[in-house]
């Protein structure tokens, strides 16, 4: 009995010793959420991050980003930019007027003092070429660049592109300047760690860290915008500075912040800059192809209501008179499914395909119309600039008489016939036919579809509406559960659009 007891005791002691040793070695310890495991100096092993060009280290067995190494490599290539001009930049006034996310720039303004804008940038060529935002230097008569070594030098604008908010500057007479390596923004993933370096509120070379919150955000121009959203702190003066990944590569140019939050910032993808750099260097501006159509995504509601037999493509909402698309015979309701041999999945892809081609070139456009697929040839012209006619882009209240209104409980619209007074007041095109929406029930499906008073309703499910009687007849056939496509003209933007309305089940 004594020998058996001794054996059991020894065995239990060995088991306990094993577990105590394992726990002491950290094999069963779980750090709290967000905590970094503590590693003693003797166990620390330097391991290069895969694909790293900066020699950043991480500890074997523990995912770890050392942004100190990242900043040490890139910080010397970041510059501060001071732009002075006699009047505010037009694009800044436009952004403020629209109430869109603020441009992260710092202005000192008075009636008599010149405008002073403070921003950031980064060197991309050892001879002094610098990338920044267009809105940082737009309209500037004097640009001063402060390098990381403390020197302040005059810079000139080589080229600028307001559509993507990118500008290329040059500091002449320089060589062997530190250069920021450029990455590939197409490989980014949401949740990936990034850091920002810039000149926020005048605090030079400030570093902040966060993650990529969203990719492909639309802010100012729904056709070309492709912003990276991040929660890395970006403030006034960060404009034009680099957004950097864990490999020390610039993957974005910090450009805007939300006026309603302190942790929502936006950056232009670096691929947008590298794609236009040759044109900026050679011509000082960017030319993009254009065919003159307003597009929308082909979603399930539109597919169902129009009985379309494809789930991919871009739906034509409007065609600009006299445009390349008009001359090629493209019409509203056409679904563009291919462009120059490239399959088109959605409206964004089509716009980028068109914009990436030079004006004057021809392209084959593949179209589905009334369940029939065919091709047509279109000759591209040059895309109008950002400050041009908003309807000339490949893209998106008056008092009324209460007499004889038409109201439908399911659609939630009150409409009336168009008359000469409405034509003149709304400056409608002479060929416009339809009824004027005078009220939208705030609890209706039409309200959810963003229909607004003052809009002209021209068709329901491709059936024309010329008078109040047409609307009354078509709306009377609407049933709960139906999905309708309404073709409307919006006077405020002088554009026709397709709106899908899903009638609530009752």
Keywords:
about 500 residues, Thrombin, subunit H, Pdz3 Domain, seven-stranded antiparallel sheet, six-stranded antiparallel barrel, 30 strands
**What percentage of the residues does DSSP assign to strands (E)?**
25-35%
The CATH first-level class of the largest domain comes to Mainly Beta
What can be said about the biggest beta sheet? Answer: 7 strands, antiparallel
* Tally of DSSP helical segments: 11
Structure classification: alpha+beta
Radius of gyration: 30 Å
Describe the structure.
By secondary structure, the protein is of the alpha+beta class. It folds into 3 domains: 48-286, Thrombin, subunit H (Beta Barrel); 289-382, Pdz3 Domain, CATH 2.30.42; 406-502, PDZ domain (Pdz3 Domain, Roll), CATH 2.30.42. 19% of the residues lie in helices and 32% in strands. The chain contains 11 helices and 30 strands. The strands form 6 sheets. Strands 24, 25, 26, 27, 28, 29 and 30 form a 7-stranded antiparallel β-sheet that branches. Strands 3-5-6-9-8-7 form a 6-stranded antiparallel barrel. β14 (250-257) and β15 form a beta hairpin. The protein starts with a helix and ends with a strand. Mean pLDDT is 79; it is low at 22-62, 89-113 and 396-408.
